[in-house]
Design goal:
The protein has 13 helices and ten strands. It is α/β, with parallel strands linked by helices. The strands form two sheets. The chain has an eight-stranded parallel beta barrel, surrounded by four helices. The protein has a two-stranded antiparallel sheet with strand order 9-10.
Length: 319
């Protein structure tokens, strides 16, 4: 199809590996290519760091970026900040390493802070002299509450569309939503089994997925054996993520990364049908059989699906 370009970048985030910025081993892991299928990293200065350790975490973040700065091939690197003012302060400190930063993750993103966050991202770009992308996380009470949700989401979407060139992904805080109601899924359950959270996620996809890549919620279980229940549960949730419109997922442990990467590959059937739809030549018919003759392909109805499948196939490959 086409070579990888900025249109592909939102899809290349893939499995976003979260690690506290205070982690003093992550630089060596990146330098030694220790993590299979590592596509992106979030160095967290927010929930993963206690207030008393914030200064230490910021100092260690600087050391991490200094260590990996000269590596020729890096995953996408993001910093998760605490609030808009924190973003402004951190971006000034990180300007010396701006060339390896992809952007910032914006937690608790809602209408109380959205404009300030986006202004801070624009300011960071001016300071750094290069594009700084943003990934807002929808996870606050105003978004969870059914009485305010649609108004909040609609207003946020309008703001993000005005700043569309900066927005790489829209992300969701599945565990944050669960916590509001005192809920937690087991490794045998998916986030879609938690009805109140499923409804929130469905509304987010409904409002944002037409214009943005929306990434799936974190899976909190991990281990060393990919045949154990943590992996069975993750594969199940990844399948449900995909059919519900989520692309990629936050990872809390490197053992999750290969499973997330594999889930982003496309089947040969889907890929070749997507190629057929995108390269449609018939001037009379807008519908035809799939390559194996098992289903219908319709140019108008399946065009957006085909484009997404084509990009995922280019970035992650074919199963």
């Amino acid at each position: 199809m086409t070579e990888i370009n900025n249109e592909y970048l939102p899809y290349k985030v893939g499995g976003l590996l979260y690690t506290p910025a205070v982690n003093d081993t992550i630089a060596d892991k990146i330098l030694n290519d220790s993590y299979e299928c590592l596509t992106s990293v979030a160095l967290c200065l927010e929930d993963a760091i206690m207030e008393s350790a914030l200064e230490t975490a910021e100092e260690n973040l600087m050391r991490t970026l200094e260590k990996i700065h000269e590596k020729p091939e890096l995953p996408l690197i993001f910093v998760r900040v605490r609030n808009p003012e924190h973003l402004k302060r951190v971006s000034r400190k990180l300007v010396v390493y701006a060339d390896i930063l992809t952007g910032y993750i914006l937690p608790k993103f809602d209408m109380t802070n959205a404009a300030d966050y986006l202004n801070a991202v624009r300011e960071a770009e001016k300071i750094c002299g290069k594009r700084m992308y943003a990934m807002p996380i929808l996870e606050s009470v105003a978004i969870a509450d059914k009485n305010t949700r649609i108004a909040q989401l609609t207003a946020i979407r309008e703001l993000l569309l005005e700043a569309e060139e900066y927005i790489l992904n829209v992300r969701v805080g599945g565990n944050d939503f669960c916590n509001l109601y005192g809920l937690r899924r087991s490794s045998f359950q998916s986030i879609y089994d938690v009805g109140v959270v499923r409804d929130i996620l469905t509304d987010i996809v409904n409002i944002f997925a037409k214009d943005f890549v929306v990434s799936g919620p974190v899976w909190e279980y991990f281990g060393s054996d990919p045949d154990e229940q943590w992996a069975v549960g993750l594969r199940k949730e990844l399948e449900l993520d995909r059919i519900n419109g989520f692309i990629g997922k936050t990872a809390v442990h490197p053992s999750q990364l290969p499973l997330i990467y594999e889930s982003l590959k496309v089947t040969a059937e889907d890929y070749y049908d997507a190629e057929s739809i995108l390269g449609w030549k018939d001037e009379s018919f807008g519908v035809g059989k799939s390559g194996d003759g098992s289903r219908m392909n319709e140019v108008k109805c399946h065009g957006k699906w085909a484009r997404r499948v084509g990009i995922l196939g280019e970035v992650y490959g074919i199963k």
